[in-house]
Fold this protein.
Amino acid sequence: MKHLIVGALIIAASLTSGCVTGRRVIGLEVPSVAVAASATRGDAAVVGVSDQRAFANKPDDPAVPSVDGDVNQLSPETKAIMIGRQRNTYGHSMGDIALGSGQTVSQQVKALVESALKSRGYNVTSGAGAATTLNVSIDQFWAWFTPGFVSVTFEARVYCKITVTKDGKGTPLTIEGYGKNSGQIASDDNWKEAYARAYKDFETKLATGLEKAGF
């Protein structure tokens, strides 16, 4: 029995050896998608992206955004880069996770939407004069993990409400990208992989949503 207890403690320690009590900073990449051979659908532009995520203090659900501190003191600049929260083997909150390299959540989502547009054959522009325009509201952009006995499950979700406007008519779309993977430690690569899978899922679902809506 003593050996079993010692073994369990060793496994638990190894699972959280990648956790930090401070802030982990990582960079994320928007995956490349198959771009249409020619822009046959005209110009499209993402004219607005708003971060509407709601943060909470010490939530029981790790999928609810939180920070290492008081969310009431969270500045817009800090909120714009927060993407996850670390927890220990017992599920207790530890340090938080932020984007690095000058990235923001809004920039990442904008790039995801533009990538999906290109895959649909649109010429993506930066102006509001495009025939097709999109406004994006970010409701969730968050990663978390669930401790297990021999591995940790990493999950990420990107959930947005998008209004596509063409010829004066707005069409609402709700798109959710989800990614999940398992690892032994809370390393940068394991967090990135969860987001990479969520990104691909989001792009695929948005391209499908645009097609179904006639865009």
Q: What stands out?
A: The two ends are 63 Å apart (CA to CA).
